[in-house]
Specification:
435 residues; 31% helix; alpha/beta; Lyase, Ornithine Decarboxylase, Chain A, domain 1; 9-stranded parallel sheet; 24% strand; binds ligand LLP
Length: 435
């Protein structure tokens, strides 16, 4: 839940820097990021992938959509893993961080012609093709630039992943990929093979996000491997790569579980080995795309408490509404996916009795709830600081300017030093686009 350098003593601190000092220096709300923890998590996935699949392992592509900025792109380059981008904007950040194009993998169910052209012209390692229209477009761009573009085909293996419906992606009725069951995937393979400017490296599936068991990943691998076998039987050659996507779940609440890299990789290695043996296939290069599992636990959000209100409920109970200086604009996940978070008092400890509270933001909307039900000390008052852990994934990256609230900065902490890696937006930033 908390990154490794956080300690919860008399007051919350990270790498020896207190919440009070961080709030004083950088203001609130603020995303505080543990750089060492990010590097460690990214390296762990890389190490476990290689341990499980040996020299022929594929690549760990960090899913930029979870959170990216130029400095994090530099870390990715330094750590030596790849990156998955799904828009021209994410590609631009990856390039600004000087990540080698050869380890950039491009996703998206509706890549624009400009995005495709840019990806091909800078020489990205791989484009994950998502539709028939796109096969033709990527082939044309490759021809135009005189290249043979490596591609994967994104498939939907027909899995009901155990997660929120908005973040499950591999059942049949979704906008992503080609369905295996309907035959669309096989037809797409046949179409790809008619274009000499495309090099079909292999198959891809991403079954959903915040998944906490390995079963769905194993079934996905099994269905993709069956298709690899069908390909070998039809064309006499084996495809080189299988990308099993991301989606590994993390710890948001006390008592939650997290999918450890070693557990996932061992389960995948066993499933891949078993299914490849069954079809007498060589084990392909296995790639993965974790986003949340790398960045999620590396950040917490620090808020300042503003107004506090006790509301009398119909049943006679009282609910305490504690408002903080952010809300759904920098954490939309509770409103969008009913995602649950916890919070702690960060600038001091309290022995006051807990009261049943609801943590809300400053937006003009009843649904602007960060935590629906939480017991917080009854003496929490305006000016106190609260911290919510595990906000690194899909927090800042999904932040909006709703109600013209400037988006918070990201402050990276390492070895007792804090520095801004994404600065706070200002009102001038908000006005800059207006004509
Ligand atoms: N690869 C592909 C093709 C993806 O679509 C995604 C996430 C990932 C990898 C990374 O998944 P992760 O390891 O981070 O779970 N906004 C939602 C999550 C949407 C994920 C979309 N795709 C949330 O806040 O839960």
């Amino acid at each position: 839940m908390w990154s490794s350098s956080v300690s919860l003593g008399d007051e919350l601190s990270i790498s020896g820097l207190s919440a009070t000092d961080l709030a004083r220096e950088f203001g609130t709300p603020v995303f505080v990021m543990d750089e060492a923890d990010f590097r460690l998590r990214a390296s762990n996935w890389d190490r476990e992938l290689k341990k499980a699949f040996g020299n022929d392992a594929g690549t760990v592509y960090y899913a930029a959509k979870a959170f990216i900025c130029t400095e994090v792109a530099r870390w990715i380059k330094d750590i030596g893993i790849g990156i998955d981008v799904c828009t021209g904007g994410e590609l631009a950040v990856a390039l600004a961080g000087e990540i080698e194009p050869s380890v950039i993998q491009v996703h998206g169910n509706n890549k624009s012609l400009t995005e495709i052209d840019k990806a091909v012209s800078v020489g990205v390692g791989c484009i994950v093709v998502d539709s028939l229209v796109e096969i033709e477009r990527v082939a044309a761009a490759a021809l135009k630039h005189g290249k043979i573009q490596k591609i994967l085909l994104r498939l939907t293996p027909g899995i009901e992943a155990h997660t929120h419906e908005f973040i499950a992606t591999a059942h049949e009725d979704v906008k992503f990929g080609f369905s295996i069951a309907s035959g669309a995937a096989w037809s797409a393979i046949e179409v790809v093979l008619t274009y000499p400017s495309l090099d079909l490296r292999g198959l891809h599936a991403h079954i959903g996000s915040q998944i906490l068991d390995t079963d769905s990943f194993e079934i996905s691998a099994q269905r993709l491997i069956a298709l690899l076998a069908k390909y070998r039987d039809a064309f006499g050659v084996e495809l080189a790569e299988l990308d099993l996507g991301g989606g590994y779940g993390i710890h948001y609440l006390p008592g939650d579980e997290e999918l450890e890299p070693s557990v996932v990789m061992n389960a995948l290695a066993a499933a891949v080995a078993k299914n490849c043996a069954m079809y007498k296939l060589k084990i392909p290069q296995i790639s993965i795309e974790p986003g949340r599992a790398i960045v999620g636990p590396t950040m917490f959000t620090l808020y300042e408490v503003g107004t506090i209100k006790d509301v009398l409920l119909e049943n006679g109970d009282t609910r305490r509404y504690i408002s903080v200086d952010g809300g759904m604009s920098e954490n939309i996940r509770p409103a969008l996916y009913s995602a649950e978070y916890t919070a702690v008092l960060a600038n001091r400890t309290s022995t006051a009795a807990p009261v049943s509270s609801r943590l809300v933001g400053k937006h003009c909307e009843t649904g602007d709830i960060l935590i629906r039900d939480i017991d917080l000390a009854s003496d929490i008052s305006p000016g106190d600081l609260l911290a919510t852990p595990a906000t690194g994934a899909y927090g800042r990256s999904m932040a909006s300017n709703y109600n013209h609230v400037p988006r918070p900065p990201v402050v990276a902490v390492n070895n007792g030093k804090a520095r801004i890696i994404v600065r706070r937006e200002t009102e001038a930033d908000l006005l800059r686009l207006d004509i």
